[in-house]
Write a structure and sequence with these properties.
about 280 residues, about 30% helix, Initiator_Rep_WH1
């Protein structure tokens, strides 16, 4: 079973940018999830980019020349310094990723356009004004598929591989009758953001990237997943299968209890118990 390139169960008759984004949620166009060339983006930069997308989200998000504003205090979280935020912003401005367009073609595009920093007092940054890159706007305008990401869950990840895997599954979790997707090994490596030349042997990739990512998703997300080998050529592993399923109510309760002492702000005050699909 193969995942359709543009699964219709995620389609919106008015497009991604007209979807309703709830508080604490990021609606992320699918085209910005499975990208290649983002291996240099750190975990902090990935989290900040999601915050920028959430802040800018709406029907006018793809309007040319549209500026968006967000405070540095929102972007830095519990950190007292703006240094990491500044480094992440510069990294996003300089990063060029390869995005698959709806017609199957590929576009090389910067993730972020021009930015301005407003300061209050000598050297104290308070507000960021930013634009999305002009070449990115048509992609956002035409997007019909998206993932709903929970900001609190995004803040729970300690590895960029875990966050990337969470987004990959969130893009597909609403599909009916599709519970796995096969990826070429090199393809999944790129989507997770593994640096070029790193973790070359599959054993290293599995131990350092795949297994930690699966463990984090299973600990933080409302769904579980696994990655299995489904194709080899000689001694080379060429294809992997990513499977996912929603947690049961009991599993969600146990998850909620296990996370309380680690991150009290990660989950709702009471364990969620409605709308959970049990595949068993």
């Amino acid at each position: 079973m193969q995942d359709a390139p543009r699964p219709k169960s995620h389609d919106s008759t008015r497009g991604t940018l007209h979807a309703f984004q709830r508080r604490g949620e990021v609606i992320k166009p699918a085209e910005l999830i499975e990208v290649r060339g983002g291996e240099k983006i750190t975990l902090a930069a990935r989290r900040i980019y999601n915050q920028l997308l959430s802040n800018a989200f709406g029907p006018e998000m793809a309007a040319e020349g549209r500026e968006h504003r967000i405070s540095f205090s929102e972007l830095r979280g519990n950190h007292t310094s703006n240094d990491r935020v500044t480094e992440s912003i510069l990294s996003l401005m300089q990063t060029v990723v390869r995005v698959r367009m709806s017609d199957g073609s590929t576009r090389n595009v910067h993730l972020l356009g021009p930015t301005d920093v407003e300061k209050f007092g000598p050297g104290i940054a308070t507000m960021l004004t930013y634009e999305l890159h002009p070449k990115l706007l048509p992609i956002l305008r035409d997007s019909q598929i998206f993932a709903r990401l929970e900001m609190q869950i995004l803040h729970g990840f300690s590895t960029k591989y875990g966050m990337a895997l969470y987004e990959i599954i969130a893009k597909r979790i609403g599909l009916k009758h599709i519970f796995y997707n096969d990826f070429e090994t090199e393809e999944l490596r790129d989507y997770l953001g593994v640096p070029e030349g790193k973790l070359g042997p599959f054993a290293a990739l599995r131990r350092k990237a795949i297994e930690p990512a699966v463990a984090e998703v299973n600990a933080l997300a409302p769904f579980s997943c696994r990655v299995d080998v489904v194709e080899t050529k000689g001694r080379k592993i060429t294809k992997l299968r990513l499977s996912w399923w929603m947690k049961t109510i009991e599993e969600r309760k146990l998850q909620w209890e296990a996370q309380q002492d680690k991150q009290r702000d990660l989950f709702e005050p009471e364990p969620p118990c409605l709308g959970i699909f049990d595949p068993s």
